[in-house]
Amino acid sequence: MVACGALAGHVRDIVSRRGWPVFVRSLPAVLHNQPQKIVLSAERAVVCALGRGHSVALAYADCGTYGALDAICARYGVRRLPGLHCYDVFAGPARLRRLLAAEPGTYVLTDFLLRGFDRLVIEGLGLDRYPGLWPDYFGHYRRLVWLAQSPSSSLVAEASRVAGLFGLPLTRIDVGVSRLERELEQLVAA
User: Which of 83, 96, 73, 71 is nearest to 180 (CA)?
Assistant: First the structure.
């Protein structure tokens, strides 16, 4: 299973708990800052695994590739997680659409994004070097929604800190990983 770095920890936990005979190869989550690189890295990983005679699945939603991951899936006969992004996988697409329709200026967080916020967002977008870009990147947001998979006291503190950076209200929605697990089960069974 070629997994998005943002999902790989959960994927490994689920694979282990379920006893599936699956090897999880994680690609760096920072690829999301340039989705075209997701496509290149995923294709290389798929070709490599298929070349070794393995069955392959992508633990990725579309992730901003605008269908390019689907083209890889079609070309090599592999499947991926459904949805536009991991937010769909965790919360469900209908629920996420309702959240965004209620407030289009919503920035969505996951446990992984909170744990790596400084590295993935602050450093990844160059805000550590060019803090003046903050309004350009985030000035249009009006609230933060944390889709919590496994909330802990440290993640609650980090969510509060990130909300403070934005100066915006934070809504926590406990989603867990059950939807991800069901989708992975479909990929493994195929």
Answer: 83
Helix 178-189 with 5-18: angle, nearest 10 deg: 70
Digit-coded pLDDT (tens) for 46-92:
999 999 999 999 999 999 999 999 999 999 999 999 999 999 999 99
Q: Closest Cα partner for 173 from 98, 91, 117?
A: 91
Gap between the terminal Cα atoms of the chain: 12
Identify the domain containing residue 24 by its residue range.
Answer: 2-85+177-189
The Cα 134–Cα 144 span in angstroms is 15
As a whole number of angstroms, the distance between CA 109 and CA 94 comes to 17
Same domain? 99 vs 156? yes
- Say how many domains are in the chain: 2
Which has the closest alpha carbon to 6: 186, 177, 189, 140? 177
- Does this model's pTM top 0.70? yes
Of 17, 25, 28, nearest to 55 by C-alpha is 25
Q: Do residue 74 and residue 91 come from a single domain?
A: no
